[in-house]
Structure formats: C-alpha cells, structure tokens
UniProtKB/TrEMBL annotation:
Residues 26-194 form the Helicase ATP-binding domain. Residues 215-365 form the Helicase C-terminal domain. It is an enzyme of class 5 (isomerase). Belongs to the helicase family. RecQ subfamily. This is DNA helicase RecQ. Its cofactor is Zn(2+); Mg(2+). SMART domains: DEXDc (SM00487), HELICc (SM00490), HRDC (SM00341), RQC (SM00956). One of its GO terms (molecular function) is hydrolase activity.
Amino acid sequence: MLQQALYLLEHTYGYSAFRGQQQHIIESALAGEDVLVLMPTGGGKSLCYQIPALIRPGLGIIVSPLIALMQDQVSTLTQLGIKAAFLNSTLSADERRTVAYDLRQGNIDLLYIAPERLLQPGTLQWLQQFQISLIAIDEAHCVSQWGHDFRADYLQLNQLREAFPGVPRIALTATATPRTQEEIVQRLELNAPKQFVSSFDRPNIRYSVQAKQDGRKQLIKFLATQRGNSGIIYCLSRKKVEATSEWLQSRGLNALPYHAGLPTELRAHHLTRFLREEEIIMVATIAFGMGIDKPDVRFVAHLDLPKSMEAYYQETGRAGRDGEPAEAWMVYGLNDVMHLSQMVDRSEAHEIFKRNEKAKLEALLGWCEETSCRRRSLLAYFGEQHETDCGNCDTCLTPPKTWDATEPARKLLSCIYRTGQRFGAGHVIDVLRGKMNERMKDLGHNHLSVFNIGAQLSEQKWRSIVRQLLVKGFIHSDADQYGAISLMERSRPLLRGEIQLFLREDIDSKPENMRKTKTSRYNEVSDNDRELWQALRACRKTLADEFGIAPYMVFH
Ligand code: ADP
Ligand code: MG
C-alpha cells in the first residue's frame, strides 16, 4: 500500500518525496487507525488524508469549516485528476442533486462537506448507504471552546463515531497547545488515536516586532523592502482595512481589502485575485485566513495586535509556505495594549473565559516585549524547547538595549496616584511633561507636585514606559473608566524604591539597518537577472491564463 501512496504522490501530485511525518501518518490511516495530526500551517496536512482516502476503497469524507475555500480545493483536485466534490450552503438544489447523482454512480472519491451540512437531519443516514474509506476532520481545533475558532457544530462531530463504526477518522489542526490536543481527542471521541506532532518551527520566517510610532510610515518603509511580493496586512477593524487599502492604492500599490462586511461576491473576487495573481497585497481582518493555500506569500504584516500567540502563529504561518524566506512583521503600541485588554474586559463572555483570554493576550504582549530570541520564545510557548538562538529574528539581529527606568517609572506611578487614578495615559503624560491647557487648569493639575517633573523625556518615551508597565502588570487600565490607569499591587516595591526596573529601549524603525532582505529575491539580483526574472514571470502568467490555473502551479 505504501507503493500505492508513493505512486499517487509522484504521479498524481507531482511531488518527489513525503514531507516530515506525512508517510507515517498515511500508513496509520491506511492501517485503519484513528489519527490526530498536529502540523503547522503549510506543513502539508491535506495529503495526509487525501492519499489514504484515495487508496482505501470507498468515499473519503472531509469535514471542513472553510466553505469559501471548498470550491478552490475541489477544483485544484479536479485539475490533478482526482474525483472530488463538495456539499455546502453555496450550492443550488440542482448542483446538490448532481453531487448526489455522482455519488451514487461512484464518481466521487473525495467529498468535502461543511459541518452544518453534515449534521442536517438525514445527511448521516444518507451517507451510510455508501462505503466510506476515511473521515477527515480538518481544522479540528474548531471543537475547542477555548480557541478563537470555536464552531458549535464541531461539538456534534462525535456522532461520526457511531454512524461509521470501523471507519478511520483523522483529525487535523495547526493549533498546538496540549490542552487543545486533549480536547480534540475527547470531544471527537477518537479511538485511541495515534498522535503525530510536528515541530512548529518555521525556519524560513523571520519574526520582527517594532514599537508603533507612526504605523503607516513604518509600514511604507517595510513595504519598500517587499517590492514585487505578495503579502497580507492584518488590521483589527473593517474600517481600518478599508482605509489602509485605499491609502496603499493611492500610493500605487496593488492592495485589496478583505473583511466579513464586504459583499460575498467582492470578497470571493478579491480572494481569487490574491490566489491567482502575483504581487497583490491583501489588507484584511482575521476573516481572511484559515486554509488559505498560497505558497508564495512573502510577508504577513500586523498593523494591530492579534489576540493571542496562537492567533499570531496561525496568521504569520500563512507566509512562506513554499519554504522560501518570508517576513512576519508587526508594529504595536500603547493604544493596542489598552484597546485589546479593554475589548476583553468589555466582552459579554463568562468570567472564566475572559480570564483565559486575558492570559493569552498577556502571553502575546510579553512576547512582543521579548528581549531574547523571538523564534525560541515563540516555540517555547508551544512547548518546544530549542537549544540555540535563531540568529535571524529582530532581537537576534539587533539585540534590544535596556535602560534603567526606575526613576521615570516612579515618577509615573506617583503621577497616577496624585491625579487620583482616574485618568488615561494621555493626561497622565501631559501632567508629567507639564503641558498647559484649559483642561489642566480646570482640573488644577498644574498645581500638583508631579506637574512637569518628567519634561526631559519625550511623549513617545513616556508612552513606551506606560506600555511596558501595563504589560508587566505594574499598572492597569480600566475599560469601564475609559482607560483610566490605576496602580497594581506590584507597583508598591517600585514606588518605595525597593526594586530597580529595566525596560526595553524601543528601536526606531530603520529598515536600512535590518537584514538585507533575503526575502526579496527581486531586489538582490542584477539588472540582467531582473529582466530574465520578469520574462519568466510573464511567461508563467501567460501559461497560467492559458490553462486557467494559478501561476504558482506552473513552476516555482
Ligand atoms: P496545511 O493544510 O498543513 O496548511 P497543505 O496541505 O495545504 O498544508 O499544503 C501546503 C503546501 O505544501 C501545498 O502547496 C502542498 O501542495 C504542498 N505540499 C504538501 N506536501 C508536499 C510534499 N510532500 N512535497 C511537496 N509539496 C508538498
Ligand atoms: Mg489545510
């Protein structure tokens, strides 16, 4: 059977060797075992269920929440000569009938189905008439109520166990935390599953995080190192997505917006353009994500903070699936820290849930302020210990300087205290810097002893201090009080002068200092090479158009 698997790999998919643990996973599934696969995004999970499903007799069922991508996946498979179809809410009654007919004729080997569709009354019974080779549950972390992709329908997928006894089930996800792992096995009721955990290291991705000074300016500098590349820019809100993409377009860049508020057709159109064309920058909310399979995404930029390390890893994982160098670039600042923690505070969620969200956010913030190798600490978060620094992330390339911030921090804490712990960061900093305005006078804050005791530091520097004190838990910003900052227990010893505090020096964004982007192959080549490169690209595009396929499918 392994022979068959190799044959399919080479002749149907056109790959020369299995990657990572693919072969072992396929062997287990072929042996009829339940399997749990944890593999990073882009690791090659699809083959792990497609190949055994094709080899074992009968129909392979793939449960996937990614309705928007099913069409694309199925047409890619069809182009490879694999008989695949999908069932979800986008199909008309006629189309559904055609699929049902093809199924009865034995004309389908792989059926992609949305969970809500699978769980409709009667669907399971209807599928029972067919011989089922294997059931794959993709994006299996959607079953986790702790995760950010929770789908209630996934909780009912345990029904598959009784409906199809003896049929191997393979659950796949790119979310690695041990708790999610356990939850998947339990909730899906997998039978003593073999677990395959791949390393989450993505050595070709270079991580960098900058303190936000002027987000747009910093973005433009970054994009200047990415000329000719495809990439994704993540923003938190729909409004910001639109504003950013318009602004980039006005600067002559090929930017497209993507968020859940756009008309379905426009969204699909932008997705298709991103997948098929080159040099497109997708400006998106997290609605753009799971399952996007474009190998040559050269960068993922975050203009706003994601919600957790898991989300960050998933989102940046969309870069460099082809194994070529890629960039994960992020700017973040005080406002992000306040905004996100307020969002958590304000959410209607249950208290336990909120605490969990908060802990996740704090882990991410701590990582942003990291002074040692970013890759190592990212992987450590996912339970992977690495011996050496990567030598490639921003902290490795430009080790951040720290400075003794004890005195300024004490001034800040005193100022928060003297102004009654009722004001936001902006006002507290104004008091410290002795800014005179009507509000200051109305409040009488210009007469306080803390007024103007911090004029020697810039506003930016103060914002950096506030941000780091928030992240380190010395102070707290209260959502119900419009972001008013108050002191936490931890600040006492600092105020009393019992401890010293070293903070990270924010680095000014100077891309010239950054690694000469290995990423941008385009920038490194000579003019001669560049012409050749362009000619190749044009030719690739023509071929792709000719055959109606994505350019990356022509050649790499
Ligand atoms: P995942 O679902 O884990 O995110 P995919 O299954 O979508 O990843 O695969 C990511 C990319 O890697 C795809 O372009 C796929 O064709 C490619 N790929 C998968 N397995 C192999 C392999 N053995 N050799 C070469 N390329 C592969
Ligand atoms: Mg996948």
